[in-house]
């Protein structure tokens, strides 16, 4: 049974009859980079996708479980799951999120409604994470054949362009989903990759915070970027360009973002089922125009000399400076201050990086003296984990 057929069988309870036949062939199995692929176990024999059974005999797709963990038998409320997907563990202990077929299909349908209707998708993300899985779910719901980019040797603009050619020959809307690092590589220089990504009707960007400077550069180059906010617990992106998908509700409680609606997961395996609202670990604010802005992770706040510093706010300032391509701000231990703010910067041109003192002064002028990075280091690239998320722990270790 092919990967997509396995997924379609799991989604069958929430699909129209004409799309639920698991024997209909769809496409070849997507590959993943060696550093993100994990053996998920069983029926398909693939490195990043498998199947298991629940107590009621249903099919459960298994994707990217932490540490090669086996799913085991799902019982009680867990047996309603169609997908078990591991979280990246970038902000804590990895968990297994259980999602129903209804939540996955609702997410796909609401995405198409927001973008302008069902279309053909290019899968350029590993299916060990919810963002990659959802590209396949959207394809199944749309009844279209997804094109799968070979990621075995990593993401390259030339490879994206080659895969895009097949998608762009099909009628109707064309979509893809990327993480910021991939988008940055496509818009870095004029070439086949940039030419191809310009042709997509929508390019969903998520998985990590996208620097405003990168969004500006992409949109100025003619790329129709749609920013997304979401997580495995919400079946992927559920807030597009700062506005929730239809039926998704967002509220702030003590600055924390809470989410409710039809795309919410059932819960974590081995835990209690989620209630009506899911409390995220993210801080946010809602503008006067009703747009949700992500301030950062609640557990990323740096306390330096008694002052609370939001890494996200400092990153915004630094990313807007000339010569800065990417940036990550973290706190490292300090005997005098408790923690100090430090910044890892990827320059546009490694041979002529921006002046560290000018970067520090920019933070001083916008955020305040207390938020100025004590140290600035220049890196060729930021370490990542999961679906392109910056590995903040690894960044902190680079400061010794």
Task: Write a structural description.
This protein is an alpha/beta fold and 400 residues long. It has helices spanning 3-11, 101-115, 130-142, 157-168, 180-187, 192-198, 212-220, 311-319, 356-366, 392-397, and strands spanning 50-53, 59-63, 81-86, 96-100, 120-123, 147-148, 174-178, 202-205, 225-231, 236-240, 243-244, 249-253, 256-260, 267-268, 278-286, 292-297, 302-304, 307-309, 324-334, 338-347, 375-378, 384-385, 389-390. The protein folds into two domains: 3-294, ANL, N-terminal domain (Rossmann fold, 3-Layer(aba) Sandwich), CATH 3.40.50; 301-397, 2-Layer Sandwich (GMP Synthetase, Chain A, domain 3), CATH 3.30.300. It contains ten helices and 23 strands. It has a seven-stranded mixed sheet, with helices on both faces. Helix 2 packs across helix 3 and helix 4 runs parallel beside helix 6 (192-198). The longest helix has 15 residues, at 101-115. The N and C termini lie far apart (49 Å).
């Amino acid at each position: 049974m092919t990967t997509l057929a396995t997924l379609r069988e799991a989604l069958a309870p929430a699909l129209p009859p004409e799309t639920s036949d698991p024997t209909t062939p769809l496409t070849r199995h997507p590959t993943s980079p060696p550093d993100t692929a994990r053996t998920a176990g069983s029926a398909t024999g693939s490195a990043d996708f498998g199947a298991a059974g629940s107590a009621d005999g249903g099919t459960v797709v298994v994707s990217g479980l932490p540490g090669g963990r086996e799913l085991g038998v799902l019982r009680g409320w867990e047996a309603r799951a169609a997908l078990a997907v591991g979280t990246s563990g970038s902000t804590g202990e990895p968990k297994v999120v259980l999602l129903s077929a209804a939540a996955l299909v609702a997410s796909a349908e609401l995405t198409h409604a927001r973008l302008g209707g069902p279309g053909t998708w290019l899968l350029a993300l590993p299916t060990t994470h919810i963002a990659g899985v959802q590209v396949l779910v959207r394809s199944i719901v749309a009844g279209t054949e997804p094109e799968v980019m070979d990621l075995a040797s990593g993401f390259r603009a030339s490879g994206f362009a080659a895969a895009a050619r097949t998608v762009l020959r099909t009628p109707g809307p064309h979509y893809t989903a990327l993480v910021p690092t991939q988008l940055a590589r496509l818009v870095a220089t004029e070439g086949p990759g940039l030419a191809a990504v310009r042709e997509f009707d929508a390019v969903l960007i998520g998985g990590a915070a996208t620097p405003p400077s990168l969004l500006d550069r992409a949109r100025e180059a003619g790329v129709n970027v749609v920013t997304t906010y979401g997580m495995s617990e919400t079946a992927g992106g559920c807030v597009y360009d700062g506005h929730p998908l239809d039926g998704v509700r967002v509220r702030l409680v003590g600055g924390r973002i809470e989410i409710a609606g039809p795309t919410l997961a059932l819960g974590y395996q081995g835990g209690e089922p989620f209630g009506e609202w899911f409390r995220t670990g993210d801080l946010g604010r809602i503008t006067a125009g009703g747009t949700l802005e992500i301030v950062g992770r609640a557990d990323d706040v740096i306390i330096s000399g008694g002052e609370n510093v939001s890494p996200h706010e400092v990153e915004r300032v630094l990313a807007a400076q000339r010569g800065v391509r990417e940036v990550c701000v973290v706190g490292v231990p300090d005997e005098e201050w408790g923690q100090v703010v430090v910044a890892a910067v990827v320059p546009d041109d490694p041979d002529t990086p921006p002046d560290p003192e000018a970067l520090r002064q920019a933070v001083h002028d916008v955020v305040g003296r207390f938020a100025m990075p004590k140290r600035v280091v220049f890196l060729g690239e930021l370490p990542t984990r999961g679906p392109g998320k910056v590995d903040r722990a690894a960044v902190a270790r680079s400061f010794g």
